[in-house]
Amino acid sequence: MRVKIRLIACALALLCLAGCASRPTAKPQDSELLVVGFSQLGSESSWRLANTASMTAALSREKGYELLLENAKQKQDNQLAAVRNFILQGVDLIVIAPVAETGWESVLQEARDAQIPVIIMDRAVAVEDESLYLSNVGSDFLREGERAVEWLREELERRGRGEDEIRILHLQGTYGATSQLMRTKPIEDAVRAMPNWTIAAQLPGDYTEAKGYEVVRDYLRGDRDIDVIYSENDNMTFGAMRALDEAGLRYGEGGDVILISFDAVREALQYCLEGKIDLCVECNPLHGPRVEELIRQYEEGESIPKHIYVEELIFTKDRLTQELIDSREY
Ligand code: GYE
User: Fold this and answer.
1) Which residue among 45, 74, 206, 231 has the greatest number of ligand 1 atoms within 8 angstroms of its CB, and so is best to mutate?
2) Residue 251 — very low, low, confident or very high, per pLDDT cuts 50/70/90?
3) Which end of the chain lies in a sparser environment, N or C, as judged by fewer CB atoms within 10 Å?
4) Can you tell me whether residue 173 is helix, strand or coil?
5) Do residues 260 and 229 make contact, with C-beta atoms less than 8 angstroms apart?
6) Which is the closest atom of ligand 1 to the Cα of 178?
7) From CA 234, how far away is CA 209, in angstroms rounded?
8) For residue 94, what pLDDT is reported?
9) Residue minimizing CA distance to atom 8 of ligand 1
10) CA 216 to chain centre
11) CB burial string 242-254: b at 16+ within 10 A, e below
12) What is the C-alpha separation between 182 and 72, in angstroms, rounded?
C-alpha cells in the first residue's frame, strides 16, 4: 500500500512538473507513516469526543501513522464524500464510524476496487457482503439495551411497583444508527411483553444535549405523567434533566421519574453517585488501541476477527465510588 502512495505522489509530482510553477515539497521522513483516513460521524456527544481522542492518540505519528480525520457532522453524505476523498488520495487504510447502518454498499465497493481495506468502528454497516470490510469494532448495543430493561424490571419489583402502570418516555438517538436501533429494540419488546408498561412517547434526540432538552421540555408541557425516562445516551439525559428541573419534576433517588442513561461518561456517573441518574449503562468509546491492534495484525498478515465487542458494565449508585469515577478515562 505504501508503494501505491509513493506511486501517486510521483504521479502528482510529475503532473506538477508539467503544469505547476513550483514542485511539491517532498517529506521523506513521512514515507514510512501508514496513512489512515478516518471518517468520524460527528462530535455530538461526550462519548464521541472520547472516541475521537482515543483514535488520535492511538494512531499518532509517534506510533507510525498519519491520521486524516474528517468530521461528518452527523451527515452521511459528508461521510461518503470523505471516504471517496480518501480513496482518491490513495490512503493505506480507511476507518469509518458510520452515522447510519444503510447506504454503504457502493462506497465500500469503491474502496475494495482501489484495494484499500476498511475497518468499521463503533456502529455497524448493514451490507450483505461482509467481506466489504475487514472488521467491525464496537459494542453489543442490543445487550446494553437488554441489561437496561432487565434492571428496570427488577428495580420496579424492588420498589413494590411491579404491578403498577408504568409510563416510559423514550428518548432516541440518531435514527438508523446501530446504537439507536439496538437500544430501542429491547424496550419496545419489553413493552409488548409487559401489559402494565407503556411507551408514553418516543422522542428524537439525535444524541445531543440540546435536542434532548428541547424535545423533553416540549413534551412535558402537554404530559407530565411519566415514570421512567429511557434515554439512549448521556447527553440527551443531561438535556432531559434540565427540562425536568424546569418543569419541577423530581427524578433519581427519592424522585418520581426513574432515569436510565446509556454511555456512562464521567459526568453521568457523577450524577449517578449523587443519586440523580438511576442507571448508567456503560458503552466504551476507547476503540483507538483496538483499531490500532487490528491494523497491526492486518499489516502482519494475521487473521482478523470480523466482529469485536467490548465487555461492558452497568452502574447504579451502590456500585460507584468517587475513586472509581476519577480513575476512568472518559
Ligand atoms: O452512545 C452516543 C454517540 O454510537 C455508541 O453515539 C455510539 C453512540 C453513543 O453519540 O453518545
Assistant:
1) 45
2) very high
3) N
4) coil
5) yes
6) 4
7) 8
8) 98
9) 179
10) 22
11) ebbeeeebebbee
12) 22
Ligand 1 neighbour 213 (Cβ under 6 A): no
Distance CA 276, CA 147 (A): 20
Phi, psi of 100, deg, nearest 5: -130, 165
Spatial CA neighbour of 199 closest among 211, 185, 210? 185
Closest CA to 53 of 286, 327, 312: 286
Report which residue type is found at 130: E
Calculate mean pLDDT across residues 163-185.
98
For residue 235, the ligand 1 atom closest to its alpha carbon is 11
Tally: H helices and E strands in the chain? 11, 12
* Rounded Cα–Cα distance for residues 116 and 94 (Å): 7
Strand partners, 315: 280
Q: Which atom of ligand 1 lies at the shortest distance from residue 208's CA?
A: 10
Residue from 67, 75, 68 nearest 42 by CA: 75
Pairwise CA distance, residues 67 & 199, whole Å: 43
Please count the residues of the chain.
330
Q: What angle do CA 232, 75, 240 make, to 5 degrees?
A: 30
Mutate to test the pocket of ligand 1, among 122, 265, 266 (most ligand atoms within 8 A of CB): 122
Closest to 138 measured CA to CA, from 304, 313, 307: 307
Q: Residue ranges of the alpha helices (H) in the chain?
A: 2-19, 46-58, 76-89, 105-113, 141-158, 178-193, 209-222, 234-247, 266-273, 288-299, 322-327
All three cell numbers of 130: 461482509
Q: Which residue has the higher pLDDT, 289 or 31?
A: 289
**How far is the CA of 251 from the CAs of 132, 184, 233, in angstroms?**
46, 22, 17
Place of cell 440523580: 276
| Distance separating alpha carbons of residues 235 and 294, to the nearest angstrom | 30
Q: Report the percentage of the chain scoring pLDDT > 70.
A: 91
Rounded-to-integer distance, Cα 313 and Cα 328, Å: 13
